[in-house]
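Sequence design from tokenized structure. All designs in this work follow the same two-part layout: the structure record, then the generated sequence. An example of the structure record is given first.
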């Protein structure tokens, strides 16, 4: 019979990871281990790593909920757990936990090899393009990151903005464009809701000179009418990110996208409730002619692998995903994931370091 247990790992950043919401120095990842005592050595593993200040399930009761889930599941004495059954065990108010259990079940179903989808990426035959992420910091720190990403061969960069003086951020963008024009380098920026609604459009007018691909969440989430106005008038295409968190009902998702009409949505399975929930958002967006991409929510390599293989299965070819976070931690789990010339690759011949 299948059993469920959990383990924990405190991930430590190589540097304080700053956004407009503050700086992170560590991130706690919880791992769900699905196993059958009669089959030693085989475990389906999923990651539930709610993100401080952002995840709905980042709260004191999270470990208690993990304990309850394991206890309830183990009392069922079941020999199977289909991914589509996950919603019966974990409510939508626990999106990171649902993602972890769903991934563990999918992994178990496919032989407990961390091979969740069969596609060119997971077979090691093709990479997934990713954006090089430039974190907030002082101008010198950001400049150093930019130069390294360009030297490493990225064709798409994403800059976190909103913590420095705006003029300084404009100068950094100007420096990038002096080196690489829009035909050579796609530029994205992420404000994490840092702009005040009354100043957002004037700032977007100034950002437009750099021919940006998009700006993520220019104003804070929950201001639907103001965000709709920004999307309608912005000279820079707008992508929704935090705006999607907690919107779990299909009718509400459709209503949100129909009202705001963004150019893009950005999907983080840890925050929106897992792989299936992500695909439901994808279907809603595509029906409204809204493009999308996938992004990590700073998971360790277990969660990143699941999202990357999802991208390999469903993402548009050649469109950069936000999956370059595996190098953030000095104690990440060793994994077959590696980056080369701005693309993420998976080597199925490389062994995993497993948690717990």
């Amino acid at each position: 019979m299948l059993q469920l247990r959990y383990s924990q790992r405190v991930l430590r950043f190589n540097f304080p990871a700053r956004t407009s919401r503050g700086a992170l120095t560590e991130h706690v990842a919880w791992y769900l281990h699905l196993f059958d005592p009669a089959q030693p050595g085989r475990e389906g593993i999923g990651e539930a790593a709610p993100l401080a200040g952002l995840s709905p399930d980042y709260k004191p009761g999270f470990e208690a909920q993990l304990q309850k889930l394991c206890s309830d599941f183990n009392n069922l004495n079941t020999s199977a757990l289909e991914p589509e059954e996950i919603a019966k065990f974990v409510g939508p108010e626990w999106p990171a936990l649902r993602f972890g259990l769903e991934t563990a079940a999918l992994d178990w179903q496919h032989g407990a090899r961390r091979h969740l989808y069969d596609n060119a990426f997971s077979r090691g035959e093709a990479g997934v393009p990713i954006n090089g992420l430039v974190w907030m910091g002082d101008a010198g720190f950001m400049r150093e990151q930019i130069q390294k990403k360009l030297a490493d061969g990225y064709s798409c960069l994403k800059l976190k903005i909103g913590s420095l003086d705006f003029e300084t951020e404009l100068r950094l963008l100007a420096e990038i464009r002096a080196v690489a024009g829009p035909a050579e380098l796609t530029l994205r920026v992420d404000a994490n809701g840092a702009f005040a609604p009354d100043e957002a459009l004037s700032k977007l007018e100034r950002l437009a000179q750099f021919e940006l691909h998009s700006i993520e969440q220019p104003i804070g989430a929950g201001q639907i009418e103001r965000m709709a106005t920004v999307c309608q008038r912005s000279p820079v295409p707008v992508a929704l990110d935090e705006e999607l968190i907690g919107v779990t009902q299909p009718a509400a998702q459709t209503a949100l996208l129909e009202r705001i009409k963004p150019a893009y949505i950005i999907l983080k399975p840890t925050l929106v409730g897992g792989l299936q929930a992500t695909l439901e958002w994808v279907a809603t967006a595509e029906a409204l002619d809204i493009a999308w991409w996938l992004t990590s929510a700073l998971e360790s390599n277990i969660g990143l692998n699941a999202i990357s293989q999802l991208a390999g299965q469903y993402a548009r070819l050649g469109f950069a995903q936000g999956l370059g976070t595996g190098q953030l931690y000095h104690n990440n789990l060793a994994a077959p994931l590696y980056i080369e010339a701005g693309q993420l690759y998976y080597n199925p011949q490389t062994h995993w370091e497993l948690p717990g």
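The mean pLDDT is 94. We note this feature because it recurs in several other targets discussed in the main text.
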